[in-house]
Design goal:
Number of helices: 8
InterPro entries: UPF0353/GerABKA_families, VWF_A, vWFA_dom_sf
Order of helices and strands: HEEHEEHHEHEEEEEHEHEH
Strand content: 15-25%
Pfam family, one: VWA
Strand order of the largest sheet: 4-3-2-5-6-11
Keywords: Cell membrane, Membrane, Transmembrane, Transmembrane helix
Organism: Vallitalea pronyensis
Protein name: VWA domain-containing protein
Distance between the termini: 36 Å
Helix content: 40-55%
Structural class: alpha/beta
CATH topology of the largest domain: Rossmann fold
């Protein structure tokens, strides 16, 4: 009687031990599946993030024929451009005008020539408008030493810098308060005028004018410019010279306004000019790769959540 009981106990204990081993094995297998599932989810999320970045592959280049105008903007940087009769001041208004023009150009090239007592090419002709904005933002009245506004030098420099092979019209835009411009600038323009050259002018400032501020190193106004007798100098818009230059240059004169009316008028006028149609530009061609990453990411995501993971009760 004792032997059968012992045998029965051995069988029961053996069965329980076997069941415990199987349960442990199933638990380990379940944990292994969960780890694999987590890895799949992480990989799928990485692939989806890469897809959001819009990866591209350069496949080649293509030459596109384009029509364009070449435009040199002559920027007055004399001290009178600091007068605040046009808010925030004439210089900043001048820069705002050019920013409006840049926002409307499409394929035309633009260059900058600051001028006061002399002139120089700050930025050659380019169709990189983002670079042009950076050059424009650093324009100030300390770029050129000396006093006065010799726009004649700037006009000649712009004319000499245009490509002679271009078949389109060449545009010079003068933005200035017109002060200290003399008849020599008109004579300089007459000497270089040809059928392809068009000269426009935008007057910045008012007929009432204002005082020319003098700033310290911290940007505070400490005084105002005075004449040889010690009297404050009143700077006013002199549109007569600017109108004269525009007339000689077969262009037009516009007065600066706060609603950018002069910009729209200028752009409308140059839209009818003859453009150079013999120019080409290389455009890079790309293959979009994001669909592949998106497809792989979504597939792994579905695999992770649609394939059931067996969970055993302990």
């Amino acid at each position: 009687m004792v032997i059968p009981i012992i045998v029965l106990l051995i069988l029961v204990l053996g069965r329980r031990k076997k069941a415990g081993i199987l349960t442990k094995m199933r638990l380990n297998l379940t944990m292994k599946y969960e780890k694999i599932r987590i890895v799949i989810i992480v990989v799928s999320l990485v692939l989806l993030c890469i897809a959001l970045l819009g990866p591209q592959k350069l496949t080649g280049t293509m030459e596109v024929k384009r029509e364009r105008l070449d435009i040199y903007v002559l920027l007055d940087t004399s001290k009178s451009m600091l007068v605040e009769d046009t808010l925030p001041n004439r210089l900043e208004r001048e820069k705002q005008i050019v920013h409006h023009i840049l926002a409307s150009l499409d394929g035309d090239r633009i260059g900058f020539i600051p001028f006061s007592s002399s002139a120089y090419i700050q930025m050659p002709l380019t169709d990189d408008y983002n670079m042009a904005k950076m050059f424009l933002d650093v324009v100030d009245t300390d770029m050129i030493g000396g006093g006065g506004s010799d726009v004649g030098k700037a006009i000649k420099l712009a004319y000499d810098s245009f490509e002679r092979t271009t078949l389109g019209d060449k545009v010079i835009l003068i933005i200035s308060d017109g002060e200290e411009h003399d008849k020599e600038s008109e004579e300089a323009l007459k000497a270089i005028m040809d059928d392809q050259l068009k000269v426009y002018a935008i007057g910045v400032g008012t007929s009432e004018g204002g005082l020319i501020p003098i700033y310290n190193e911290t940007g505070q106004v400490t005084d105002y410019k005075k004449d040889k007798n010690g009297n404050p100098v009143m700077s006013k818009l002199n549109d007569a010279t600017l109108k004269g230059l525009a007339k000689i240059g077969h262009g037009a004169y516009y007065a600066s306004t706060m609603d950018a009316h002069e910009v729209n008028a200028f752009l409308s006028s140059i839209a009818s000019l003859k453009k150079d149609g013999n120019t080409t530009k290389e455009i890079n061609q790309y293959q979009q790769l994001y669909p592949y990453f998106l497809g792989m990411g979504l597939s792994l995501f579905l695999i992770a959540y649609l394939v059931p993971v067996r969970r055993q009760k302990i």
